[in-house]
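Below: protein 1.
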Amino acid sequence: MIQSGRASLVVLSTDTEPAAISAMLALTPTRVEHKGTVAPSGRVRENHAWSIDVDSLANTGADQTGTGALRALLMRSDPAFGRVANLPKDCDARILWSMDSDSTQGGFVLPVDLTDKLSELGVDVYATVYLDDSDE
């Protein structure tokens, strides 16, 4: 069963500066990386990266769907609704969502109200489930 999750709204751009993305989306990012800077791996970044991140959130007694981080991200991204489609063509916006399972299965539920909100924001969601494969 999904136990927790993380989510990020990410905008990658070849030319548009992160400050311009912030202004267009009316949001303050959690993290910004500039094109041409050196990543910790030693690789030179080919794109600007702008993101709003929601750190790991565990399920609650009231919500066992595993979507808490995704819901929190959508609430924080509320000012960007209706604005993402107006980003310049060099910008690629997406949501990265990952979840942690306590078993070798990682099913999750996307309630209709959540899919409606994702559709309103207008970005694709890239989801990953990390499974616990330890022998118990």
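Below: protein 2.
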Amino acid sequence: MLVPLLRASCSPNGGGYGGSVELRMPDAEADDLGGADLLRATLRAAARQLGWKTETYAMAGTVHGTMVGVVDRREVPAPFSEAVAADTARRMRIAVDRVGPRGGAPRQPAPSADADPHMPIAALRIAYAEARQDE
């Protein structure tokens, strides 16, 4: 159920490169799903199915609850490098603007779904619930 989520995180027109997903959830929910280490290993396994060279992290007990993530660290081939770089810059700009531009200006509106860090956990919850119904 994670492979489509990871695939969707890749840069548009990027040939399947440049993907990353971070899941944030309450610690109790992470524990119900097997804990941060199991979630991290599951993300890593799904990413490897896509051929990603992975960098993963897992932190429990943060201000945001449990945070687990995976990043594709493969070298991007030349035909896709411009698209991946442009998408990475766009996502970074959205993240910075959401926190607030320099000078203390008001925060920007919530980002679109393709840059919202909370969308992956919503998709994971739906996929997990559907998988449980099939049991």
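The longest strand covers residues 54-62.
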